[in-house]
Design brief:
By secondary structure, this protein is an alpha+beta fold. It has helices spanning about 55-60, 85-100, 100-130, 135-155, 160-175, 200-225, 240-265, 285-300, 320-330; strands at about 1-5, 5-10, 15-20, 25-30, 30-35, 45, 65-70, 75-80, 275, 280-285, 305, 310-315. The strands form four sheets. A five-stranded mixed beta sheet has the order 1-2-6-7-8, with helices on both faces. A hairpin with a 5-residue loop joins strand 9 and strand 10 (about 280-285). It starts with a strand and ends in a 13-residue tail after the last helix.
């Protein structure tokens, strides 16, 4: 159980939610795990299938407390709310901002600042931890280049130019990615990003990690009442979770890339875990996906201190924290959207 920004997160499995007076009670096999007053909660997010009592659902609906159900892995299932009050206003604000490219750019640039800052941190961390394994001078040069791009992004109010700056930063960062692979270099290498299809083992894992992260981010956005399909940097496209892709930009490197590198460098995966098809596409075996998913779930349970909130949370709750902060910004509760700046 974790309370964050007036949202209660129930992360333990097999917990049933019930009502006692003005309190939510957490039960597992009739054993009381916790009890919390509901009067200052805005939302309850439960990871699991066990459910909630009709009395609690009715209480929350009457008082505009959203009740969100996700799978144990974080996939969005349902969101129970009462009469449309705050959420319709939030989504209408989201749609209006999305239609205004200047306002969209002012939000989108913070996503990109977060992404570049975190990639710069990864580079600096490599020079500190592995000075004899990487070209320190080249890494430092790229790091300085990323710093200069951040300054340009900070002043940018044009979406097209913002995409160009993000592309420059990504190209520079990708030049170093192969050097960050420290083990199994004959079987794991990175020359450039290939997506549809991935053409090597590293790209196969990156694509899988980005898909999982996008799903987690979309579920987090839906849980706070935002439309995961209407973005600010990524424009509308049928079937694309554009806002999820926006917000996950700042988490790609520090969350997904570092995870993939750790699997390679710790030899959790090896060349036997991949199959190359006739068209050149590389896919992971069923057993490799199981290992990947197990390690991903374990990573989501690791605790960190959120750099903006100053609270200890698990990595798995980071997308939810950022979704809450974005919703607060759109409601004018914050002067600016605070990106996830990890160090």
């Amino acid at each position: 159980m974790k309370k964050l920004l007036n949202t209660l997160f129930i992360t333990q499995p097999d917990v049933y939610l019930s009502l006692d007076g003005d309190n939510i009670v957490l039960l597992r096999e009739q054993e009381k795990l916790g009890r919390l007053p509901l009067h200052n909660l805005e939302s309850i997010v439960s990871f699991g299938y066990t459910g909630a009592s009709p009395a609690l659902m009715g209480y929350c609906a009457e008082r505009n407390i959203s009740l969100v159900f996700l799978t144990n892995n974080g996939r969005f299932l349902a969101r129970v709310i009462g009469k449309s009050k705050g959420n319709v206003i939030l989504r209408k604000k989201q749609y209006r901002v999305s239609e205004d490219e200047v306002k969209s750019a002012k939000i989108a640039r913070n996503f990109i600042i977060g992404k570049i800052f975190n990639n710069k941190w990864i580079i600096e961390r490599m020079t500190r931890d592995h000075p004899l394994r990487v070209d320190v001078d080249y890494f430092k040069k790229i790091s300085q280049h990323l710093s200069s791009i951040i300054l340009d992004v900070r002043e940018c109010e044009d979406l097209e130019r913002l995409r160009g700056l993000e592309g420059q930063a990504a190209t520079s960062y990708n030049k170093l990615f192969n050097q960050m692979i420290l083990q199994q270099k004959e079987d794991f290498y990175f020359h450039s990003r290939s997506r549809r299809p991935p053409l090597d083992n590293v790209n196969a894992m990156l694509s899988f990690a980005y898909t999982l992260l996008a799903n987690d981010m979309a579920a987090a956005l839906e849980s706070v009442g935002l439309d995961a399909y209407v973005g600010f940097l990524h424009r509308d496209r049928p079937g694309r979770v554009s806002l999820a892709l926006d917000v996950m930009e700042e988490l790609r490197g520090v969350y997904a890339d570092k995870f993939v590198l750790s699997l390679i460098n710790k030899k959790v995966v090896n060349k036997e875990d991949f199959i190359k098809k006739e068209n050149g596409a590389v896919i992971m075996t069923d057993e490799a996906r199981k290992k990947f998913l197990s390690a991903w779930q374990n990573r989501k349970q690791e605790k960190i201190t959120h750099p903006y909130l100053g609270e200890k949370i698990t990595w798995g709750l980071v997308p939810h924290a950022q979704a809450l902060l974005l919703a607060r910004y759109l409601r004018d509760d914050l002067d600016e959207y605070p990106p996830f700046l990890w160090k």
